[in-house]
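User: structure tokens for this one?
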Amino acid sequence: MTADTNVISTDVKESKKPVFSIPDFRKIFPVLGLIAVIAFFQIYTGGKVFTVRNLKAVINEGFFIMIGSVGYVFLLSQGSMDFSIGANMCVSCAAAAMGSAISPVLAIPFGVGTGIIIGALNGFIHVKFKIGALIATLAMQFILNGFVVILLDGGTLQPPLNMLKWNTMTLKITTFLVIVIVGYIVFEYTPYGKRCRAIGSCEEVTKQTGVNYPLMKFIPFVIMGAIAGLLGFFSLIRTGTASSHTGSELMMNVLNAALLGGIPISGGATSKYRAVVIGGLTMAFLTNGMTLMGVGNYDKQLIRGIVFLLAIAISFDRKNMTVIK
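Assistant:
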């Protein structure tokens, strides 16, 4: 009788298991969003999305967004943000142009070095003075926007014309692969990547584990600064000029890409590195599609704002109400 009871009990438990489970919408939203964006613009533009010429434009756009997202994934996973990356890219581009006037080979160290200094300053203000990342980087954005106007004297700077030959697809693809692969290894397979997600999940618990918490919070700003500086250099060799408008769309594009890729704005354990590729492609096709449709700059800002609100509404982890740490 006992055996029969056990069998019946087991059967009841098994019968309670659902035949199929409904997937978490937040997990499949990034892929669905990418497919929807590509399908919409492919239909609306009469098949212009997948022409060779347009795909090159998508790659050029996606290069900046995806590489920027590599840095942002470390910040967002902790629940931090950097609103100054566009302004950082602008100042770094101007610094790269000034370095190229001395020697073209100095353009990269001038640009990346400037980006690192700005990123380190952001991290220092945030960690040392315990000022929220949002406030610290927003203030830095205003400072840099004013500084670059003074630096450029209201005009522009141009590198030597032979530097424009550096703007090759081979260099971009190689740089992209190296940064994305290294970022993936660090974020997914090193203790630092795990601690970034741990800080986003529960900051107080992470402090009590004995790790160097201030350093853990400081490093992502330096990484983001270095990437902003590198993008400043690539912007210089792509456009052939450094102006006060350089990088003006970077911050919103990268932030939207990270959120659309599935990283919650509150950070934590659910932060996934795949957001770099999925979200980056989504924003690249979205930006390119709006250009194909002839959407004006102000309308693009409106659309990006709507996308930002939509991405937050879907990805926000309501169990962790502390958004910006």
